[in-house]
Amino acid sequence: MIFTFSFMQQAFIAGVIVGFLSPLVGLFLVVRRLSLIAEALSHVNLSGIAAGLLVQKNFPAFAFLQPLYFGMFFSLVGSLFVERIRRLYRTYQELAIPIMLSFGMAVGVIFISASGGFNADVAGYLFGNILNITVQEVKMISIVGLIVLLVIVLLYKELFALSFDEEYARLMGIRHHLINGIFILLVALVISISIRVVGSLLVSALMTIPVASSLQIAKSFRQALLYAIIFAELAVMIGLIGSYYLNWASGGTIVLVSVCIFFMTVAVRRWIFRG
Amino acid sequence: MMNGQAFLQVENVSFGYGKQYVLKDVSLSMYSGEYTVLIGPNGSGKSTLIKLILGLLQQQDGQIQIQRSRVGYVAQQANRGLADFPATVREVVASGSYGQIGLLRWMGSKHWQGVERALDQVGLTEFASRKLSQLSGGQQQRVYIARALMSNPQLLILDEPTVGIDVQAKEQFYQLLKQLHQQGLSILLVSHDLDEVISDVDRVLCLNQSIYFYGSTQEFLREQKELLPNLFGVSTIRSIL
Ligand SMILES: Nc1ncnc2c1ncn2[C@@H]1O[C@H](COP(=O)(O)OP(=O)(O)OP(=O)(O)O)[C@@H](O)[C@H]1O
Ligand SMILES: [Mg+2]
Predict the structure, then answer these.
(1) Chain centroid to CA B215: how far?
(2) Is the pTM of this model over 0.90?
(3) ipTM value for the complex
(4) Which of A33, B50, B155, B193 is in Cβ range 3.0-4.6 Å of B186 for a Cys bridge?
(5) Where are the bilayer-spanning segments (chain A) (predicted)?
(6) Which residues of B touch A169 (CB under 8 A)?
């Protein structure tokens, strides 16, 4: 059995955590029509990782500073900017997204070219290389994952109210600036820990596709959460096993399975409505 | 009815989004148990006044006194954009108490009982587990009333709640408001359906940048022949519709 390999165990632990948290924050993003924020922040994250690779190459003394931490730092800072820009334009909130996305991409490309161009390392971060994940990285993913989960459980009420009707939530005295700020930080954290699993190019896919599938059949918000998590975990597990045996990129395989699940839910829904 | 302390007091309030005033020197007060309808042409500042009362906007001049935690609100076109949200009627109504429950606390059985009571009050008990998007426009508006009732309000403020609802559903809707009023709730209703509600309300407020008429329903009916042509350019209530 493949689980007897310790690297496969590590990959599964990381995958299960990311498969749980991505759709969890993803659902709140999708219903607020902000799912592209994940896309923008993943590009910002990539620029941080590129900066980390550059530092590792030029200052071997700092090799202990993993590029993953650089990515996390960049996307945390980026998320605060997104929230700022979002408040600037009340009706064009999504304007923050292309601004951050292009900025992140531009900086990323510059750093990557400065650190010697595209190589296997860069490709691993772009497309995900979960089979090479280290024990230390899995520890970091677990700790960050636990924090994110705890905060979402504690703020579930407020997040629901703000997502459903922000004006009414404000009216009820919910501290919208605070909660929105915390939430966007959580999104940045989830993106940072997902990079290893699906890669920066596909991070937002794992946040949105399982949610899209879930919305096809969910009858309540709780069901939407539950199904989205189930679909994401299914995609991660089938994808991981598939990528191991087929020797495909893990990120791509996971997202491919996710898309298959989506089409299946569409079919199921049609079938239910017809029958 | 006018005895005791007014629980909503608007004094000489003026407001503009830019340089121009949208509201000028507006004063009004509401007492407990009162049902007031607020009318005025499009753009006359009705929604703006409501938002000032709710604290969603800040007035430039004047004062507003109100206990905001005891106010329920149903917004103009509340059902737009939210309708396809993946939540059940029960989940939406429950969210009306989230503000009062406060940070880091959860719904208790007391709150869930409140949800069922609010659903019962608006006649939606059998739809509680349905998705919001599977309800008609009129039923959705009832959901928002139930949500507003969750904060156990003294005053219910509704901004054109019946836009896009058919005549029959409208009648049922105003019947519901009348019932809530009879149960002791104060209501401030913004509406163009003066004809439908005039027999239910205690007072009429006509607004067009400043207050044009503010008095009892009887006074209004006596003066409407002179009032309405100036306010709307028409001579009877029926012709506004
Ligand atoms: N956010 C805003 N920014 C700038 N001007 C605004 C804004 N909202 C409303 N206005 C202007 O303020 C005036 C009053 O608007 P308000 O929405 O209060 O009118 P209303 O009486 O509610 O109209 P309606 O019957 O159409 O709902 C209008 O002239 C409108 O153009
Ligand atoms: Mg209005």
Answers:
(1) 18
(2) yes
(3) 0.91
(4) B155
(5) 12-31, 61-83, 95-118, 138-156, 177-195, 225-246, 252-272
(6) 98-99
